[in-house]
Design goal:
Blueprint (H helix, E strand, L loop, with lengths): L9 E18 L5 E20 L4 E5 L13 H8 L4 E6 L10 H17 L6 H4 L6 H6 L3 E5 L3 E4 L6 E6 L6 H6 L18 H9 L6 H7 L2 H10 L6 E4 L6 E5 L2 H14 L4 E6 L9
Parallel strand pairs: 3-4
Antiparallel strand pairs: 1-2, 2-4, 2-5, 5-6, 7-9, 7-10, 8-9
Helix pairs in contact: 1-2
Bound molecules: 4-diphosphocytidyl-2-C-methyl-D-erythritol 2-phosphate and adenosine-5'-diphosphate.
């Protein structure tokens, strides 16, 4: 059954996507890489507002609006075009661009959700949105997920509550450039993902996994190594690792208080870095 049409305007969050681990397990004939990744979302992100309009339009504000083109190539308008749709969009760009936390993909997913709500339509299938970006299907799902294939094979995963600190040193990293520097493309998959009951179990399991894109990204942007070291040395940080193709690094914490304290220290030590703290998205983290 299609959902009822929602009265405009509609507002959708575009939450930051975090690859808690990411193994590159192969490469397809078309050059795209096969991944095996455990993906979570943070309660921080862009915000997209949509109202019905004859002609599609996009206005961008927020701390990372500068340098982001609001023309037809923007993923918000490309997503709207895919759904055949006119809407007037306003995007608050709160996440750094080209930073491994899927900001553009999350915006595209938010546009698809907004249009579906405005029109009472179903959301498109993962395969139908993959052309917008390999991360768009998982951002459309918006829940903790094991992502494989090149990003279109999705299996929801239940995660315990935890908190994150996200740090971006202000360098954009092009995803394709990172993949092309990989030393190996035949790494083992993640294996079975246990049913974690406590965040400590999740953190211990993650410590035995990797992000295979971290080393090639650090070649492109050597500052990434320094960000991992600084975050990893923060009191209460159980694990510090790069997300996606970088350069954003995440730190994992048992409590939001510990994450906020680490973020406050890093903001003082490194005033030029973008630093955010947030619970992992989902009902389990609501009471952290
Ligand atoms: C690496 C990941 C992990 O979640 O995250 P980000 O760093 O983008 O956040 C994603 O796979 C990125 O997804 P997305 O950013 O949507 O990628 P796309 O625009 O589809 O692809 C950009 C380029 O990355 C390479 N690419 C991307 C995905 C993939 N599975 N294999 C690849 O080889 C290709 O060279 C492609 O031309
Ligand atoms: N709404 C958008 N937000 C961010 N980037 C966008 C958007 N639309 C198009 N792009 C382009 O998509 C590219 C990847 O952006 P993004 O999804 O933020 O990267 P990542 O997935 O690595 O975090 C950028 O180089 C940017 O120019």
């Amino acid at each position: 059954m299609p959902s009822p049409v929602i009265e405009p305007p509609v507002i959708e969050r575009a939450r930051a996507k975090v690859n808690l681990c990411l193994h590159v397990t192969g490469r397809r004939a078309d050059g795209y890489h096969l991944l095996d990744s455990l993906v979570a979302f943070a309660e921080i992100g862009d915000e997209l507002r949509a109202e019905p309009a004859e002609t599609p339009s996009l206005a961008i504000g927020g701390p990372f609006a500068a340098g982001l083109d609001a023309g037809p190539d923007n993923l918000v308008l490309r997503a709207a075009a895919l759904m055949g749709g006119g809407a007037a969009f306003t995007l608050a760009k709160n996440l750094p661009v080209a930073s491994g936390i899927g900001g553009g993909s999350a915006d595209a997913a938010a546009a698809l959700r907004a249009l579906a709500r405005l029109r009472g339509q179903r959301l498109p299938a993962p395969e139908a949105v993959l052309g917008l970006g390999a991360d768009v299907p998982v951002c459309l799902a918006g829940v903790p997920t094991r992502m494989s294939g090149i990003g279109e094979v999705l299996a929801p995963v239940r995660l315990p509550p935890f908190a994150m600190v996200l740090v971006n040193p202000g360098v954009g990293v092009a995803t394709g450039a990172v993949f092309s520097r990989l030393a190996r493309r035949d790494n083992p998959p993640l294996g079975a993902i246990p049913d974690f009951t406590a965040s400590g179990d999740l953190f211990a399991w993650l410590a035995t996994r990797r992000n295979d894109l971290e080393a090639p990204a650090a070649e492109v942007a050597p500052v990434i190594g320094g960000v991992i070291a600084a975050l990893g040395a923060s009191p209460g940080c159980a694990l510090a690792r790069m997300s996606g193709s970088g350069a954003t690094v995440f730190g994992l914490f048992e409590t939001l208080g510990a994450a906020e304290a680490a973020a406050a220290r890093l903001r003082i030590a490194e005033p030029d870095w973008w630093v955010a703290s947030a619970p992992a998205a989902g009902p389990a983290s609501a009471g952290l």
